[in-house]
Amino acid sequence: MALRYLLFGQFLIKKGIITNEDVLNARIMQKRNNLRIGQLARKKGWLDESDVERILMFQEESGNKFGEIAVEKTYLTDSQVDALLKEQEDSHLYFGESLVRLGVISREILIKELEEFHNLRLSCPV
Known about the structure:
Helix content is about 70%, strand content about 0%. The chain is mainly α. Helix 2 crosses helix 7. The longest helix is centred in the last third of the chain and has 17 residues, at about 105-125.
Protein backbone atom coordinates (compact mmCIF):
# COMPACT_ATOMS: atom_id res chain seq x y z
CA MET A 1 0.00 0.00 0.00
CA ALA A 2 1.34 3.41 -0.94
CA LEU A 3 2.07 5.76 1.96
CA ARG A 4 -0.26 8.24 0.31
CA TYR A 5 -3.21 6.04 1.29
CA LEU A 6 -2.07 5.32 4.84
CA LEU A 7 -4.64 6.32 7.45
CA PHE A 8 -3.60 8.62 10.29
CA GLY A 9 -4.33 5.95 12.91
CA GLN A 10 -2.13 3.42 11.08
CA PHE A 11 0.60 6.06 10.86
CA LEU A 12 0.49 6.63 14.63
CA ILE A 13 0.47 2.87 15.32
CA LYS A 14 3.54 2.35 13.09
CA LYS A 15 5.32 5.11 15.03
CA GLY A 16 4.43 3.43 18.34
CA ILE A 17 2.45 6.45 19.57
CA ILE A 18 -0.91 4.69 19.89
CA THR A 19 -2.22 1.11 19.92
CA ASN A 20 -4.91 -0.70 17.95
CA GLU A 21 -7.11 -0.44 21.04
CA ASP A 22 -6.63 3.34 21.06
CA VAL A 23 -7.81 3.46 17.43
CA LEU A 24 -10.87 1.40 18.31
CA ASN A 25 -11.74 3.57 21.32
CA ALA A 26 -11.30 6.76 19.29
CA ARG A 27 -13.52 5.42 16.49
CA ILE A 28 -16.18 4.40 19.02
CA MET A 29 -16.09 7.92 20.46
CA GLN A 30 -16.48 9.36 16.95
CA LYS A 31 -19.36 7.01 16.16
CA ARG A 32 -21.20 8.06 19.32
CA ASN A 33 -20.57 11.76 18.70
CA ASN A 34 -20.88 12.14 14.92
CA LEU A 35 -24.58 11.61 14.42
CA ARG A 36 -26.19 11.25 11.02
CA ILE A 37 -28.87 13.69 9.91
CA GLY A 38 -31.66 11.21 10.58
CA GLN A 39 -30.40 10.66 14.13
CA LEU A 40 -30.21 14.40 14.73
CA ALA A 41 -33.74 14.90 13.36
CA ARG A 42 -35.06 12.16 15.66
CA LYS A 43 -33.29 13.74 18.61
CA LYS A 44 -35.06 17.04 17.83
CA GLY A 45 -38.42 15.28 17.46
CA TRP A 46 -38.70 16.23 13.77
CA LEU A 47 -38.73 12.60 12.58
CA ASP A 48 -39.60 9.31 14.20
CA GLU A 49 -37.89 5.97 13.60
CA SER A 50 -40.30 4.91 10.84
CA ASP A 51 -39.77 8.22 9.01
CA VAL A 52 -36.01 7.68 9.07
CA GLU A 53 -36.40 4.09 7.85
CA ARG A 54 -38.62 5.19 4.95
CA ILE A 55 -36.18 7.91 3.92
CA LEU A 56 -33.30 5.43 4.11
CA MET A 57 -35.21 3.01 1.86
CA PHE A 58 -35.77 5.77 -0.70
CA GLN A 59 -32.09 6.62 -0.39
CA GLU A 60 -31.04 3.03 -1.13
CA GLU A 61 -33.15 3.05 -4.28
CA SER A 62 -32.20 6.49 -5.55
CA GLY A 63 -28.73 7.14 -4.19
CA ASN A 64 -29.81 10.71 -3.35
CA LYS A 65 -28.85 12.46 -0.14
CA PHE A 66 -30.93 11.88 2.97
CA GLY A 67 -31.81 15.58 3.31
CA GLU A 68 -32.84 15.91 -0.33
CA ILE A 69 -35.20 12.97 0.00
CA ALA A 70 -36.59 14.21 3.32
CA VAL A 71 -37.47 17.54 1.70
CA GLU A 72 -38.79 16.02 -1.52
CA LYS A 73 -41.07 13.65 0.43
CA THR A 74 -42.06 16.52 2.81
CA TYR A 75 -40.69 14.92 5.98
CA LEU A 76 -38.50 17.99 6.59
CA THR A 77 -38.22 21.53 5.27
CA ASP A 78 -35.16 23.02 3.58
CA SER A 79 -34.48 25.14 6.66
CA GLN A 80 -34.66 22.09 8.93
CA VAL A 81 -32.17 20.22 6.74
CA ASP A 82 -29.88 23.26 6.71
CA ALA A 83 -30.05 23.43 10.53
CA LEU A 84 -29.28 19.71 10.81
CA LEU A 85 -26.32 19.98 8.44
CA LYS A 86 -24.94 22.94 10.40
CA GLU A 87 -25.34 21.10 13.69
CA GLN A 88 -23.67 18.05 12.19
CA GLU A 89 -20.73 20.12 10.98
CA ASP A 90 -20.39 22.11 14.21
CA SER A 91 -20.34 19.02 16.43
CA HIS A 92 -18.15 16.81 14.20
CA LEU A 93 -15.38 15.08 16.16
CA TYR A 94 -12.25 14.27 14.18
CA PHE A 95 -10.17 11.17 14.88
CA GLY A 96 -7.20 13.09 16.28
CA GLU A 97 -9.41 15.16 18.56
CA SER A 98 -10.97 11.97 19.93
CA LEU A 99 -7.46 10.70 20.79
CA VAL A 100 -6.82 13.95 22.68
CA ARG A 101 -10.16 13.73 24.54
CA LEU A 102 -9.37 10.14 25.51
CA GLY A 103 -6.03 11.31 26.92
CA VAL A 104 -4.07 9.07 24.55
CA ILE A 105 -2.00 11.94 23.13
CA SER A 106 -1.60 15.63 23.85
CA ARG A 107 -2.85 18.34 21.51
CA GLU A 108 0.78 19.34 20.87
CA ILE A 109 1.72 15.82 19.77
CA LEU A 110 -1.43 15.63 17.64
CA ILE A 111 -0.51 18.83 15.78
CA LYS A 112 3.11 17.73 15.29
CA GLU A 113 2.11 14.28 14.01
CA LEU A 114 -0.63 15.64 11.74
CA GLU A 115 1.91 17.96 10.13
CA GLU A 116 4.37 15.09 9.62
CA PHE A 117 1.62 12.82 8.29
CA HIS A 118 0.37 15.48 5.90
CA ASN A 119 3.88 16.23 4.60
CA LEU A 120 4.60 12.51 4.19
CA ARG A 121 1.43 11.97 2.17
CA LEU A 122 2.11 14.99 -0.03
CA SER A 123 5.63 13.81 -0.80
CA CYS A 124 4.53 10.34 -1.94
CA PRO A 125 3.76 9.63 -5.58
CA VAL A 126 0.24 8.61 -6.52
